[in-house]
Amino acid sequence: MLWADKYRPKDLANLDYHKDQAVNLKNLVKDGDFPHLLVYGPLGAGKKTRIMCLLRELYGAGAERLKMEMMSFTTPSNKKLEIMTVSSNYHIEVNPSDVGIYDRVVVMDIIKNVAQSQQLNSNAQREFKVIVLTDVDDLTKDAQHALRRTMEKYIANCRIILCATSISRVIPAIRSRCLCIRVPAPSEETIINILHYTCEKESLKLPRGLAERIVQVSNRNLRRALLICEACKVEQYPFKEDQNVAEPDWQIFIKKTAARMLQNQNMDTLSKVRENLYELLTNGIPSDIIFKTLLEELLKNCDMGIKSKIVEEAAIHEHRMAQGNKSIFHLESFVAKFMYIYQEMMQEMLGDF
Amino acid sequence: MSDYPDPDEEFELMYGDELELLREQDEDYHPPSKSRKSLNFSTPSSSKDVSRQSDSNGQQNVNSFDDDFPLLLPATTDNLQSSTTLNVSEISHEPHTSFQVSSSQNIEQIIEADSSDSRKRTVDDLFGDINDLGDDILWENEPISKKPKLSEEEELHVLMKQIIRLRELNKEKHNLLSGINKNTTYSHIQHSKHNLSYRVPKYPFIGVKRHDGERIYVRFHSEEYEKEERQTIVKECSSKGLLGDGYKEIWKDAKTLITKQIKLAQEEIDQSTELSFDTKNDGSKQLWTDMYKPRKYIELLSDESTNRIMLKWLKLWDKAVFNRKPKVKPIRPAEKNKNWFFKEKELDTNMDEHGRPHHKVALLCGPPGLGKTTLAHVAAKHAGYNVVEVNASDDRSTEAFKTSLENATQMRSVVDKEKRPNCLVFDEIDGAPQASIDFLVKFISGNVTTKSKKGKGQKQAVLKRPIICICNDVYVPALRPLRQIAFVINFPPTSSVRLSERLMCISRREGIKTDMGAMMALAEKSNNDIRSCLSVLHFFKTHKKPVTLSDIYRTSIGQKDMQKGLFTVWQEIFQIERPKLRSVTDLNNISNKHTMQVRMSKILQTVCSFGDYDRLSQGIFENFPKLILKDSSMQGLSQAAEWFVFSDVLNNQIYSLQNYSLSTYLPYAFVVWHFTFAVPQSQKLNYPSIGYEAKQKETRQKAVVSEVLRGMPPHIRAYCHRLSLILDILPMISKIIVPPFRPVSLHLYTKDEKQGMLRVVNTMIDYNLNYVQERLPDGVYVYNLEPNIEDIVHFNKTSITKTTLSYSNKQMISREIELEKMRRFEVPKSAIETSKNPNAMKDKSSPKTPLPNHLQKLKARSVNAKPTVRKDFFGRVITSPTNNSGQGPTGPNLKNDIWYQYKEGYNNAVRKTIKIGNLK
Q1: Where does the AAA+ ATPase domain lie (chain B) (predicted)?
Q2: Candidates 2.40.70, 2.40.128, 1.10.8, 1.10.3470; CATH matching B496-554
Q3: Residue B40 contacts by C-beta under 8 Å, 6 or more apart in sequence?
Q4: What is the chain A residue with the closest CA to B767?
């Protein structure tokens, strides 16, 4: 078992960070009732962990007895859809965006299914079940609109916990119907502590310097930090301060791409960069993450003068990318723009000399 | 002219007056001679032979010759051998025949005939034979039915000859010169004939002795007569071209005459057509496209080589279609013999082929209005088929398709008096449903396979009729299967010269006053679309005014929204068209100042008429980095790239919100790209495939991730979702699961190493990974990760040196994973068991691990037996300890009623009981 899974806290009380939030959640549950929740935060911040802890707090250990089930739905156009759900006796978790544009059907049907089966023995447990919807920000507008009415209608029988990385793409109507809980990424210090704690449990000795470097690479993503740490252990143990820190390949790849862009600004680079971008996209790296990583890498090597300009361009392009469909166009447009700005700057500098 | 016979002339000079007389007499003979036309070629002789022949023919003819000519009539009727009369009749017939001959011969012959003397005439006589043949050929449409009887080489040969001849005939239609000149030759013959004699003539004469001793009597004339005669002869000679001036004069005269005649004829035609057209307007209201449709092969306007290929292909069917067994298709006996002959030959050489061409279908493709349908019809008719057409207006469901196919290929019209085989023409096949085309393909190829099974002799559903398919776009997906088996003929555009000539001809007939230039412009404007040209002409006809060049340019009609090919459009965007190549659209505003404007409007127009912006922009996007660009600075590129963004955003708006009004703005992006990218030279373009490939690869990778997700145990799955899997877990897992194992057996591992192995195994199971043995093409076996996350995780495959496990390690891990999975599978079972009997809960600490069913049974017995036995035994032992020591080992065995040990296998040298649980 991976450390990330092995040392995952199971109880709200055991959480390592954001303890006050955990206390709040505990109090929320103690009352026996709670509103719909919208949990959001960056990757590897512990959203899912909190949600599962919350469920355990609600229903006890029974919530941990999970099973996977294939549920099938039929769209109005008679298309059969199948979607994987993870459920216990008390809750069901589903990622509606797995079925693409038919997510509306899934959202509506699943809520109705759950809500219609009322708890007979009301004093035994809670009188409501919980539906966990993940990746809400990837839901289509249709599905989100379908959600907002059903959410209110069946509140007697079910609570919905929504999970998203960012609420910017969740429509305000849903945001207002939920209690929004932000789970920020853990601070670097926290991650270092957790790494040390984990290594201790594994009876390993982690040098401070390595831990810091791991945290730096992990980008405050706890899951990634733990995984990297484990990978480092596999690669070389006992740990050394200056040990090679394994980084995800895609990140290295984007860095290389950025370096290429800074090196040369011409047509050749553009087509090479395009190849790289295509490869990233085909391997399932989301375009916004490519965008962000790329920008970060580029900014490291930019003059202060053009930084603001580039960031502005990046913002414009990313915004357009959200409106568009083919992200390669947007990425490449940004690349071309950056190369143009950078080239001009370089020429100006040369002109000064 | 040069070899003009001198003696003849001399005689003529001398006996001019007699000639006059004889000419008169000859005129009388016209009627009888005509009746004997059939005898003309029996004696191909020149007039020079006349006297000699008559001499050799015997006495009886002498009298008749010397007597008055009218007396000859009975003689000729009685005795056909009389060569003189025959000659006379021939001569009198001469003007008539020569005209026919000249009309069917080529110009050289005609010129020869013009200047021919009596000797030349033999040639004409010889051609009398051909004359009749020519007559036949002239009306070639009628006897088509017997054409197919000929072998294909013969056929083609004759056909080509015909075409040549008919083309020339058209040119020479009104050339009447030959007829005029013939009269003069005729007079010479008269001269020589009636001024010489072997017998003693009645007129005054001088006896002359020939070189071979024969005596010849030459007519004697008076001096005055001679003088007069000389003058006339001189006159005549000049007319024959002996003197240049006279010849020229005659030529001029003839020309004026011809033009006059042409004019007359044309006026006549004009009147007649106008009349007929009027009546047609009242009645059937025929379209011009139908009216002036080519009905014969030579009238076809389309590219000659295409026509030829089409016809050749059709001719390839001759063996299969026309040489079938006579009882199947009764043909006229003459053909039968021929067919048998061919059949024999075919059976010898390629009977498996059934004499059918390799391609069973011809696929004609090209833009509309080039005459594809017409070609198919005309060629099929020409090759002797009865055309059955199925087009878009017919029901083309699979069922209907089947019926029409079977009807056309296996049956024949009984009502038709001409029993021609069918030729199926599928017009507009690109619009037919996929299922129908699939059926057609199956019909063509599927029967081929059954044929070989059944053998040669049987007649069954083998496709024995040619099928011609016609389409505009050969790259329609539905046509793909057909394209592979069909003989694809790409239709080149018609030459605008030929088209405009034809248009000219039609407008003349329709009485539209116009000129060649206008017609050329019209042809060019419509991109040589015959149909549209005719429609425009038809439209102009209603104006009842002369059509001029400016008219053609000014009117906006006749200009099609042309759909150009994908590559043409791309080429147009990437290439600056040279300004000298003016097209119809930009004629008015051709000036340097407006070039940009013109280019812009041109691109807009092209792109708009193409319509598929998505594919176009993708093509530009993928092509431009490889091309030489006008502006390859980053500024231009970033500008162009921004327009890609714009078009994508717009597209998304359009398709997600169905807001199609926005699509008006899409073409403008192409203008920008044109201005940034276009260069004057032509560029090599590729079909955009990267986008598609990327998409495919993406779905493949997605499937891999889904596979990982599907197999995860729920307690992992609950915390893990796709994105984190791709971004964090999988890249790291690929590193975590490859610890540096020693390549030795598991038994030799230290405890730590075993722990490490166990960890790897567990992790891999958690994330549904395993090593699967695969065989590479070169026969080497390898273990690959399944699902193969390596592809997803690793970028830039070459540069990264990934640590991998050895083959044996992978094998070991793979085995361990299977074992561990088995163990895990049992865990829930044991959990259930333990919950069932709470007593067993205590035993949990004991090494009694649950086992697979077959093992478990054995174990359970022995283990259960032991404690019970022991307990009982110990209980008793306390009372009798001596018993214990003596019966210790045998006790349990004796206790049971039956005890047996089952040994499996051949070898029981070393046998050790191992529990699955201990295999760790």
Answers
A1: 358-493
A2: 1.10.8
A3: B89, B90, B93, B97, B125, B128
A4: A1
Residue linked to tokens 């004093």: A123
Distance in Å, alpha carbon of A76 to nearest chain B alpha carbon: 19
CATH of domain A3-182: 3.40.50.300
Name residues whose C-beta falls within 8 Å of residue A224's C-beta, 6 or more positions apart in sequence.
A44, A217, A218, A248, B727, B728, B732
Q: Look up residue B913 and give its two tokens.
A: 């009981």
Structure tokens at B197: 């004699």
Residues 6+ apart with CB under 8 A from B646: B669
Q: What would the pLDDT profile of B683-710 be if each residue is shown by its tens digit? A: 788 888 888 888 888 888 888 888 888 8
DSSP character string of B485-527:
HSEEEE-PPPPHHHHHHHHHHHHHHHT--B-HHHHHHHHHHTT
Q: Which of B637, B651, B691 is closest, CB to CB, to A267?
A: B637
Alpha-carbon separation of residue B113 from B8, B123, B153, B191 (angstroms): 19, 9, 32, 19
Q: pLDDT by residue (tens digit) across B842-878?
A: 444 444 445 555 544 444 444 444 444 444 555 555 4
Domain ranges of chain A: 3-182, 188-235, 249-352
- Top-tier CATH class for B302-490: alpha beta
* Same fold? B302-490, B566-688: no
Helix H, strand E, coil C: the string for B416-436 is CCCCCCEEEEECCHHHCCHHH
Distance CA B766, CA B761 (A): 9
Q: By C-alpha distance, which of B475, B500, B591, B599 is closest to B552? A: B500
Residues composing chain A:
353
Q: What are phi and psi for residue B488, nearest 5 degrees?
A: -85, 125
Q: Do A84 and B709 touch (CB under 8 A)?
A: yes
- pLDDT tens readout for residues B27-51: 555 544 444 444 444 444 444 444 4
Class of domain A249-352: mainly alpha
Q: Among candidates B230, B238, B116, B87, which has minimal Cα distance to B183? A: B116
- Residue B50: the pLDDT is 43
- Count of other CB atoms within 10 angstroms of residue B437: 24
Which of B618, B736, B788, B824 to mutate to probe the A interface, most A CBs <10 Å? B736
Binding-face residues of A in 316-335 toward B, CB within 8 A:
317, 320, 323-326, 328-330, 332-333, 335
Looking at the complex, does the CB of residue B175 fall below 8 Å from at least one CB of chain A? Answer: no
The secondary structure of chain A in percent helix, strand, coil, rounded to multiples of 5, reads 60, 10, 30
Q: How many Cα atoms within 13 Å fall on the side-chain side of residue A3?
A: 26
The number of C-beta contacts closer than 8 angstroms across A and B is: 186
Q: Which two tokens stand for residue B814?
A: 């793979």
Give the burial class of A124: count Cβ atoms within 10 A of its Cβ; 0-12 exposed, 13-18 middle, 19 or more buried.
Answer: exposed
B731: part of which helix (H) or strand (E)?
helix B730-736
Q: Contact A230/B717, CB-based, under 8 Å? A: no
Establish if B880 touches chain A: CB-CB under 8 angstroms: no
Positions in chain A short of pLDDT 70: 118-125, 352-353
Mutate to test the interface with A, among B620, B649, B732, B789 (most CBs of A within 10 A): B732
CATH code given to domain B566-688 = 1.20.272
pLDDT single digits (tens) B750-774: 888 888 888 888 888 888 888 888 8
Pseudo-torsion of CA B241, B242, B245, B248, nearest 10°? 10
Which residues neighbour B360 within 8 Å (Cβ) at sequence distance 6 or greater?
Answer: B444, B445, B463, B466, B467, B485, B486
A117 vs A95: CA distance, rounded Å: 21
Show me where the domains of chain B are located.
Answer: 6-229, 243-282, 302-490, 496-554, 566-688, 706-822, 851-920
Please state, in angstroms and rounded to a whole number, the distance separating the CA atoms of residues A133 and A103.
Answer: 11
